[in-house]
């Protein structure tokens, strides 16, 4: 085989030297505190069987989409599922993409224009940042969840630019994937209304977690009509694959015409879209898993307080709980100890997070028992303080 160019080999070697080298994990049968399967839908035999039955009942026996949605891949299940999503999320329309990454890249690379300004939270996901890099708009990051800093950026742009921006896009997440915290959405909506900004919220880690039926944080607060676009990702709480952008009919029409990650890719298979549809039906009918998840989040927060672990953790009421343990080598060693004791807890290393902000990331699920939660926190305490 032909070897890598030296410049690439050097980059890999530097990663190894910094204890930041990534490897694909080997599956081990450990207690799950690492996956994004918050409600256990990915493991649900019920959803698996219902999806299969739905396909057979509707005589859908096709393995692939056969092409992009604009050519041959727009099978009838897309329309049915998008209508269900729009109704569930109280949105005018929904447009399904192949993944959350595709949705964010497609949106941010096509919607903001050359004379526009994008202001995004400094901790926004890589897919958002990659989409912004592909845009012709100017972009600036604001300090994490700091709306005074955001307002200052808005006013500075209005005062210093020779020609006023056509449009401001304000971008954040309702639950941040590496901290598990959330912005004050009501305050953010008020700020956007004050300056006539277009608000875009990624709800990837809120779907299935917040709201009576897991509808997401914005909708649980009755703010869904105050935003320009919501991005819903199905690979977390919904336990399957794909994503949708929620918004107006005009926005959907625009994305179908200009979002390259939508236009130039083979669509999802009928089976994938059917799984999304059935998972949403289970969100509506199965409240037990959502309530169990909420109880586990509350129990985790109570236990970390009782064990004097709270100062280590980022404040979070979500299913993502992060203990800051600076240093790649140290956090990897503690993660290894937890795994050796039967708990699948992953270390998040720099450069994924800033240097000095390395952490253990605990993902909570409806199927975790209170004993498992207590035991993993006891083991964390032993590993850190002994």
TrEMBL record:
InterPro entries: Aminotransferase_I/II_large, AON_synthase_class-II, PyrdxlP-dep_Trfase, PyrdxlP-dep_Trfase_major, PyrdxlP-dep_Trfase_small
UniProt-listed Gene3D superfamilies: Aspartate Aminotransferase, domain 1, Type I PLP-dependent aspartate aminotransferase-like (Major domain)
One Pfam family of this chain: Aminotran_1_2
Domain Aminotransferase class I/classII large as annotated: residue spans: 28-376
Keywords, sorted A to Z: Aminotransferase, Coiled coil, Pyridoxal phosphate, Transferase
Coiled-coil ranges (or none): 283-310
Gene Ontology MF term list: transaminase activity
Cofactor: pyridoxal 5'-phosphate
UniProt cross-references to PANTHER family, sorted A to Z: 8-AMINO-7-OXONONANOATE SYNTHASE (PTHR13693:SF77), CLASS II AMINOTRANSFERASE/8-AMINO-7-OXONONANOATE SYNTHASE (PTHR13693)
Family affiliation: Belongs to the class-II pyridoxal-phosphate-dependent aminotransferase family. BioF subfamily.
Protein name, entry field: Pyridoxal phosphate-dependent aminotransferase family protein
Native organism: Flavobacterium macrobrachii
């Amino acid at each position: 085989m032909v070897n890598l160019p030296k410049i690439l080999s050097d980059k890999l070697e530097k990663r190894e030297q910094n204890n930041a080298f990534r490897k694909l994990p080997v599956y081990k049968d450990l207690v799950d505190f690492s996956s994004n399967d918050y409600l256990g839908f990915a493991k649900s035999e019920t959803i698996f069987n219902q999806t299969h039955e739905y396909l057979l009942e509707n005589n859908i026996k096709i393995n692939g989409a056969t092409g992009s949605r604009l050519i041959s891949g727009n099978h009838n299940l897309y329309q049915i599922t998008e209508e269900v999503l729009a109704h569930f999320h109280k949105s005018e329309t929904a447009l399904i993409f192949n993944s959350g990454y595709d949705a964010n890249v497609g949106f941010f690379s096509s919607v903001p224009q050359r004379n526009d300004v994008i202001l995004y939270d400094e901790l926004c996901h890589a897919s958002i940042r990659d989409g912004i890099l592909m845009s012709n708009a100017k972009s600036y990051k604001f300090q994490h969840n700091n709306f005074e800093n955001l307002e200052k950026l808005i006013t500075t742009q209005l005062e210093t630019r020779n020609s006023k921006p056509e449009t401001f896009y304000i971008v954040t997440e309702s639950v941040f994937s590496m901290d598990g915290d959330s912005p004050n959405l009501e305050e953010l909506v008020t700020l956007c209304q004050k300056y006539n900004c277009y608000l875009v919220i990624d709800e990837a880690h809120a779907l299935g977690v917040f709201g009576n039926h897991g509808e997401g944080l914005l909708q649980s607060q009755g703010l869904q009509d105050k935003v320009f676009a919501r991005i819903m990702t199905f690979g977390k709480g919904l336990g399957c694959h794909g994503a949708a952008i929620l918004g107006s009919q005009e926005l959907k029409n625009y994305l179908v015409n200009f979002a390259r990650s939508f236009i130039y890719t083979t669509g999802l298979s009928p089976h994938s879209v059917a799984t999304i549809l059935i998972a949403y039906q289970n969100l509506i009918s199965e409240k037990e898993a959502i309530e169990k998840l909420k109880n586990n989040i509350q129990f985790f927060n109570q236990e970390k307080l009782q064990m004097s672990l709270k100062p280590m953790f980022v404040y979070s009421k979500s299913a993502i709980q992060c203990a800051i343990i600076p240093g790649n080598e140290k956090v990897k060693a503690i993660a290894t100890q937890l795994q050796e004791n039967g708990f699948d807890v992953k270390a998040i290393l720099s450069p994924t997070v800033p240097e000095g902000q390395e952490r253990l990331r605990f993902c909570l699920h409806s199927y975790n028992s209170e004993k498992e939660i207590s035991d993993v926190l006891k083991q964390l305490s032993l590993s850190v303080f002994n």
